[in-house]
Amino acid sequence: MIESVPALPQDFLAQVDETVSHYPVSKRSAALPLLHLWQERFGFISQEAIDWIAARLELQPIHILELVTFYPMFRQRPFGKFHIRVCRTLSCALGGSYQTFAHFKKLTGATGDEHGPIDSPDGRFTVEFVECLASCGTPPVVMINNDFYEKVDANKVEELVRRCGE
Ligand code: FES
Asked: pLDDT by residue (tens digit) across 34-44?
């Protein structure tokens, strides 16, 4: 139920209304923009978020959940302040991305099941393998939050992790 979510900030609700107004023919088309808005504001897409967005767009929660589970950019749990994505697709794998990933793990202390995002013990870092980041000629390719890095060897990993601490 849309009423079950604790009061959302007025400016957020205004952003939601403004976004939905761009889709007068099909409110459903606002689903992805609203998911991005929610994640930018609250950090991840909770079950409450799914229910709230579905209700706001007069959809079933499954219509929102299927987007959240299909698109890898959506998070279903809180992540660290620094989200490190390491490409593991062929060009980057051949270019050393598994070593890059291992070095990020070592320097951040992140552990866990590498089939999904893994967290450092202090919660500051979330490290994750991802598929192609569209710069296959400059492997290994990494993103930290919205910043993009190419040719990330061990030295560059050390520099990047150090910069996160500054
Ligand atoms: S294979 Fe890594 S960016 Fe394409």
From this structure: 999 999 999 99
Give CA angle at 87 (103, 104), nearest 5°: 15
Domains, in order of start, for the chain:
2-70 (1.10.10), 82-161 (3.40.30.10)
Using one digit for the tens of pLDDT, what is the confidence trace for 113-159?
888 999 999 999 999 999 999 999 999 999 999 999 999 999 999 99
CA of 140 to the centre of ligand 1 (A): 7
Q: Kindly give, in sequence order, each residue whose CB lies less than 8 Å from that of residue 119, ignoring residues fewer than 6 positions away.
A: 79, 80, 110, 112, 125, 126, 127
Measured in Å, residue 93 CA sits from the centre of ligand 1 at 8
User: By three-state DSSP, how is residue 85 classified?
Assistant: strand
Amino acid at 161: V
